[in-house]
Amino acid sequence: MKSVKRVSSHEIIVDEVKKYINQKNYKTGDKLPSVAELTEVFQVSKSTVREALRFLEGLNIVEVINGKGIFVKDGDVLRIEAKIEVENEKNFLLHTSELRRALEGKAVELAVFRADEVDINEMEMYLNEQVRLKDLHKDSSKVDWAFHKAIYKASKNPVLESIVESVHDTFNKFWNQPFGIEDIFDDSLPFHQTMLEAIKQRDKERALIEFNKIIDSVEENIRKVDGADRSE
C-alpha cells in the first residue's frame, strides 16, 4: 500500500483498501491491517480510516470484529468495483434529488397558480407522449425531462428557470439511464398524471403531495439498486 498524504476524504482510503485487497489477492476471511496500521500507512487520521471502514462494512466488503480485527468479507474485486461505483452513483443521485425536491417543488407550487392554457397543454402533450412511448417499450427519458422543464416554465419565475438551466447537466443524470437501467423510474409515471390533474384543478396541496410521491418513488428505486447485479 502506498502512502496517501493530506487526505480530506474517506473515499480515497476506500479506493486504497480496495486496491490493497486486489494486489494481495485477499480472499473472504483474510485479515487486513489494523486501524492503527492503516492510519500509519496512509498518513491520515484514525477517524478518516474508521469512516472508510464503515463505508466498506455497509457494502459488505469488510467486517470489523471488536477485539479480533478487520476481515475481508467479499474478496471479489469485480463485485467490489461494482458496489463502490453504484454506491457513489446512489449518493450523487440522492443528493441531487434533495435539490430537485426543493426547486421543482417550488415550481409546482407556482405553476398551480400561474400556469396558463398553453402551459397546461404543453405538459399534457409531453405526458401523453411519455405514456405512448412507455406502452411501446421505447425510451421516454427525453420526453420526461421536457415535461419537467415545462413545469419550471409554467412557474413564470425566470430566476428559478435560470437556476435549473445552470444545473441542467446535473439534473439530467436522472433522465440518462442511471445505473444503465432504462425503465428505473417508470413507477413514478402515475404520479405525474395525478400531479398534472391537480395543477389543472389549481389544487396546490394535492399537486405537492403527488409531486413528492414522484420524488419518493425515484429515491426508493435508487436505493434498491444493488451493485452485485452489475458485476455479472
From TrEMBL:
GO molecular function annotation: DNA binding
Domain HTH gntR-type: 7-75
Pfam families according to UniProt: FCD (PF07729), GntR (PF00392)
Keywords: DNA-binding, Transcription, Transcription regulation
Record flagged with keyword NAD: no
Name this protein carries in UniProt: DNA-binding FadR family transcriptional regulator
Species for this entry: Virgibacillus litoralis
